[in-house]
Amino acid sequence: EYRSGSQIREDFLRFFEGKAHRRVHSSSLVPANDPTLLFTNAGMNQFKDVFLGAEKRDYSRAASSQKCVRAGGKHNDLENVGFTRRHHTFFEMLGNFSFGDYFKKDAIAYAWELLTSAAWFAIDKEKLYVTIFEGDEKVPRDEEAYQFWLEVGVPAERIFELGAKDNFWAMGDTGPCGPCSEIYYDLGLAASESGADVPFGEDDQRYMEIWNLVFMQFERASDGTLTPLPKPSIDTGMGLERVSCVLQGVMSNYDTDLFIPLIKRAAELTLKPTSENPDMGHPVGDEKGAASLRIIADHARAATFLIADGVQPANEGRGYVLRKILRRGIRHGRLLGQEQPFMFEMVKAVRDEMKVAYPELVEHAERVSKVVLAEEEQFARVIEKAMNELDRTLDAIKQLPSVLDRWNKTPESAPDYKEAEAAFWVTFELVHRTVNKNEARPKSRHGMFPGRTAFFFFETYGLPIDFMEDAARDAGIELDRAEFEKAKIEEQERARASWKGGSQKTASPVYRELAKTEFEGYSALRVDGARV
Ligand code: ATP
Ligand code: MG
Ligand code: MG
Ligand code: MG
Fold this sequence. Notes:
CATH superfamily of the largest domain: Bira Bifunctional Protein, Domain 2
CATH architecture of the largest domain: 2-Layer Sandwich
Largest sheet: 9 strands, mixed
Structural class: alpha/beta
Mean pLDDT: 85
CATH class of the largest domain: Alpha Beta
Order of helices and strands: HEHEEHEHEHEEEEHHHHHHHEHHEHH
Shape: elongated
Low-confidence stretches: 434-444, 501-532
Number of strands: 11
Bound molecules: adenosine-5'-triphosphate, magnesium ion
């Protein structure tokens, strides 16, 4: 029996209503009272104060389908999107919650009933695996969870133990925490990463995590001691896109009805009909193109929901993450050959797919679409400028050896010494704009396109690295790819460390410098037919 994503969402909520849970609407993607959080990233966020006992509700059981974004901040799945079957920047988290009401036994029994009973999701039990917390020096192995899984009928050989990274959850450095238990689905050998028939635990493409049950059981004090909570609580999260993938019998979240119409629309909007692919309704055959379409579909959802919830593209904080998402989507459109605005049309497709569950999209769609169009137009100008700068930089690198040579050979008393020196510094600035300005004359990497300079273009304008490599090669210059990767990792670490609330610290430093690094008055070579 086929179930649409919308039906699955509804079935989940109905199931838990039948177990006396209150249906609660999703909260905004912008966390209401939590400046430490970039975006809402789990169903429990809106209940944080209820779990802490700081807020009372007239119910002790709740169920929701929560809008989540995991891009930027502590949970960052942005780079995974397009390349794994199970990650999105925006997704919906189905969750059931107990505020000091039921605990482990019922949470496990409910989850198992929903997933496997014939009246509900009827998933083949043979394909499910569960994990429990293996224990550490402070908390023993979760023997209770193990017993409850056995009781509902999971055979011992399909229960695995995992460490704290996956199976111990904490709200923060202090406060509620406890072990988790996760449920995984075996997508089968065809989904495997390596093609080899490996057991559970060795292939996270094949064995897909679908549901995480958190048992809030302890209170952690600032000295690290754990005290059992008098009324333990339950927090669970299951990705709607992942459970839809399982129930619709497909191999990837992107092959569910939640994504197919969006991918189709992305294809219509970006691909030009060719003799091999005259029917624009279908994704392109090659994997690179298909990944681009998945990225566009995903990022259109994220951008639409973020803007609807009040985020505006900006150079820092939440708005900066939104801008990154939008520009990444636009760039992939360009990779497919579309240089005109198209993302603003994707917004309408997202509205049409999601308006039943999120009626607020209808009232916001016009405005959201306008914001996206403005961003697309602005980005087109940025790209134009980036291309000019890239060309000028490549040109400078080519001339660097002769400029240096001239400067080195000219006696300081010679009339053209000043001119040679000035020429050197102009070149040096262009190439080494992101390097410490006190660095001595560049000697070692003559003729190479520095990785840091490439990273500057990547961060500031979103120029893809492959594109720059090609452009450099055309100019007879090699790009220092290793240095680029290093700069990228350093920036990721900086970004991770810098989000501690507020909005000032998250912007990429080079992004904020943008206005200061503008160059004027040069004529550039335009790379014809270049795609960014
Ligand atoms: P994974 O290990 O696959 O990255 P996770 O352990 O980070 O998932 P949790 O934090 O446990 O995920 O979130 C609860 C559930 O939300 C997951 O079991 C999964 O179904 C879903 N989920 C998490 N991240 C994503 C994502 N980026 N896209 C879609 N669904 C997600
Ligand atoms: Mg994750
Ligand atoms: Mg996980
Ligand atoms: Mg998990």
